[in-house]
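Researcher: Quick sanity check before group meeting.
Model: Go ahead. Protein one:
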Amino acid sequence: MTELLKNREYKKEQLKKLLLRIHEGEDVNKLKEEFRQVLSGISPLEIPIIEQELVKDGISAKDIAKMCDLHVELFREAVAGTEELEERDLPDGHPLKTLYLENKEIMKDAEMLNLYARTLATTKDERMKAEILGVLEEIVGNLRKVGFTHYNREEMLTFPYIERRGLTAIATVLWTKHDEIRFMVKRFSELLGKRDELPWEEFTSKLVERAGELSFALSDMVFRENNIYYPTLKALLTEGEWKAIRQQEDEIGFYKVSPPAWDPGEDVKPLHPWEIDPELSVEQLLGLPKEVQQALKGRPLEFDKAELKRGGDIDLGTGFINVEELKAIFEALPVDVTFIDKDDRVRFFSPGERIFDRTLSVLGRPVQLCHPPKSVHIVNKILKAFKEGRKSEATFWLRLGPKYVYIKYVPLFDRDGNYIGTLEMTMDIEPYKRIEGEKRLLDWRD
């Protein structure tokens, strides 16, 4: 153990010397191989500590920031297992390559967060303090987006594929870790906002501690993903599954990368989770990372073979339901809906919640005859503007006894852009106006 510690300390000293040589002007690429050799025995989580020592030796945080890209690249190359799945082996725009590229950005920001927090704690210059606080605000603002983009895409787009195959534990653990990091980012942001409420020493002490915890958590997640989760995805998902994922990614967004379009070919059909055969072949099982294989030993997988589309279901584009379910959904909505077709006739109104009276006798009636004569000209103006594409909505609100009624009209169009009718939505917003604070899912009590 003593020899191991001595060796690690030696490598840390060597790394410090190499970083100093970069600072003094030596070409980074020429030193890359020496960096790789030194980093092979150092945890990537130790690098921010070494960088902090360099700050004390007189190297500015800005200069060290320029080295972050190299650190991330070398970390990826040095960690066991990642050599086989480097993102450069994947085509541009492939969802897995995008995840790898985002992890490089996350690692860089995690490292910078730790570095600037430690630098702030040792800085005496007031101007520098303000500058560093501004940088920290920017970094943590970016890190908040990790949860909305990178983690959210994994949870919404990739987890369903492995859950379908019975690997629910992997998704559960990762999602739990994601939420822990989301909370840590939020807590760090809140602490930054209290800098004027706490004594400076107490504030910076807490900041350094939380920055270290957050940086470690982010780096640990990168390691888990790069070495366990992404190899699992590569072993299991087909081109069709990746194609379906790529078609949905833009809706959620990305973290500091802008992937181009990617399509494995017109002959490849996009496959959603409910469309795949969930059973794993021997080849797929053998292709899983050893950590996953070990976890599965002696545990039979419970494949999810549920059929999504049933006989009599209606395909609504975003799901399949039958008529009875559709009626029940409309009854449960806290809004009443009326549909007027392209000929201005009432075709449908929802059951359940009612603000204005609706009876079956209204069906087929021209909508103009459903309004008082004094307002018909306004109704016609709205419908004309909708049909001509000049307006995308018309909204109104009024008091009706204890109710505060909100009314919204929107035009509807088919896939070719042809007007097919207007939807009226009406609801009592008075109860919602009284809502304050938060009530989360975890606050629910039976």
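Researcher: Fine. The other one?
Model: Protein two, sequence then structure:
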Amino acid sequence: MRDTTDLDQDMMQALARLAVRVGLNLQPEQELVMTAPTSALPLARAITAEAYRAGAKLVTPVFSDAEIARARYIHGQDAAFDHAPGWLYDGMAQAYDAGAARLALVGEDPFLLSDQDSAQVGRANRANATAYRPALSHIAEFRINWSIIACPTLAWAARIFPDLPAAEALARLAASVASTARLDQDDPVSAWASHNAGLARRCAMLNAARFDTLHFTGAGTDLRVGLAEGHFWQGGATQARNGVICNPNIPTEEVFTTPHAARVDGVVRATKPLSHHGTLIEGIEMRFEGGRAVSATATRGQDVLSQMIGTDEGAARLGEVALVPHSSPVSQCGHLFYNTLFDENAASHIAMGQCYASCLEGDDLSPDAIAARGGNSSLIHVDWMIGDGRTNVDGLRAGADPVPLMRAGEWVI
């Protein structure tokens, strides 16, 4: 079965250039570790060629495959779902220690494992998250330049547009990916430079304001999110600790920071479904007290939601808060992508689990120092959407009047 071979070759080359030149800003003589599904092989090849043209020393791909992944759940031993290839992730961590960049290609079937045992899926995810932690720390702490970019595939397109013929569904998805990645602009690289400048101005304003808390109100939502001590806002192009400026997510419409793990209170309702490890979780509602989700319900996918926030102590607390205008290009596509890379950029959102230490002032903060600032620690980091055209957001400071930041889902400052 063909997956990406029907994509326009000009789009394939444009995505490859965007990934290497804007997403990664790959440096001469830098190594690249790239993960990708086999369905994205043509794009992986185009990116590899572009990386070598940019002066890469070595590109090392690590591929996953849908049928191989399913075979484990159909034929594997139950005890094996608590095991993960730590040796692989240790090797990735060594590569990052030596200065390698990291690129993740996404585009696999978002519901690949939806018909499998959710408990086994949860156990396998936990084992992988535990084993991956040495490598993930380089990303969470922004020690290296890294990026995520999507490749339209037939399996993914069929999930989004199940009533369309395969070729038409793929074309629709490709058009959405192109528009959200600004490939429909005359000069996508320049378009990203302009977009990044706008996000940087927004971050500068929020950093100068030094809000203590954000107050979200909307349909079913009245939530106060305290912000970590010494937090700062990021969005768009960011300088990693190795000095390279990169775009971690393509597309991206968010500005985000680190909440205080013990200072989140109130109720919040999801505005979009969450696609999480093959399960669609709908109608999420949570109530927070003292930073912890003391109640979490869903109209669909309750078992998976409960497993997710029960992963460890930090999984029921927040690690990220992000503001996104309702009019973002991702939102304007008018459909869910069932992929967090896209769906989180359609709406303001929060994330359960691990915080980004890169959003805290200071270099090489120890885990204890991060925790002292209010930064959360967990094996997971799962974004879910809480913003829409009815969402209002205010910035709060002690002893000062609330400052309107968003009204009806749009920036007002």
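Researcher: One line on it for the slide.
Model: The longest helix spans residues 118-140.
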